[in-house]
Amino acid sequence: MDASSSSSANHRMGIIFNAITHHQQPAPPITTTAPTSPPAGVQLSRYENQKRRDWNTFGQYLRNHRPPLSLPRCSGAHVLEFLRYLDQFGKTKVHTPICPFYGHPTPPAPCPCPLRQAWGSLDALIGRLRAAFEENGGKPESNPFGARAVRLYLREVRDHQSKARGVSYEKKKRKRPPQQQHPHLPPQLPPPPQHHHHGNVIHVMQTYPSAHHPPGAT
């Protein structure tokens, strides 16, 4: 084989090697930590800031899980475990069926019924995490926050709390003002006080390094 033939063969092999390595290049991994600060000159909305905190907190929950859990292996069942874990930081009184104030929207006296996360807070949280998952490299078809089990759980929480608290979560149709230009943002959780049992969903969790025993998890 002369020099020109050898050079031509090497060139073809180089093209094939580049094509193979390019084809086998892995997809970018899903990140569980959002950037700590926005680009210079960009001011994020309250919704975007809350979504970043939610995403960082969920990533911390996965790292503290025993055994540690990677995001690609996270399923709807793990999301349910996370939501049940958050109940210990809830501030909404949910009456039990044996409570005399069951179904009473304005109880006249205190009762020992447990505090839980309000359905509206959980619903908004899942919406933000579902969006953050895809913004950080996740595929819509594998989004654990959009799993059917999660939707059913939120529906059960809504129905249960509606009956227990004597309130309706049905959306009322209202006419929008003709010149309204501000986008509707999900309700924000209140800022956390100093004590754990009054903290909000996100900030209080960051004071708990271990999340491997969520209440109610199986």
UniProtKB/TrEMBL annotation:
InterPro entries according to UniProt: ALOG (IPR040222), ALOG_dom (IPR006936)
Keywords attached to this entry: Developmental protein, DNA-binding, Nucleus, Transcription, Transcription regulation
Stretches with biased composition (Pro residues): 184-193
UniProt entry tagged with the keyword Transcription regulation: yes
GO cellular component: nucleus
GO biological process, one term: response to light stimulus
Record bears the keyword Translocase: no
Subcellular location: Nucleus
Pfam families listed in its UniProt record: ALOG_dom
Principal subcellular localisation of the protein: nucleus
Residues covered by the ALOG domain: 46-173
Entry-linked PROSITE patterns: ALOG
A molecular function (GO) term: DNA binding
Segments for region (Disordered): 161-199
Coiled coil: none
PANTHER family named in the record: PROTEIN G1-LIKE2 (PTHR31165), PROTEIN LIGHT-DEPENDENT SHORT HYPOCOTYLS 3 (PTHR31165:SF95)
Family of this protein: Belongs to the plant homeotic and developmental regulators ALOG protein family.
Protein name: ALOG domain-containing protein
Species for this entry: Linum trigynum
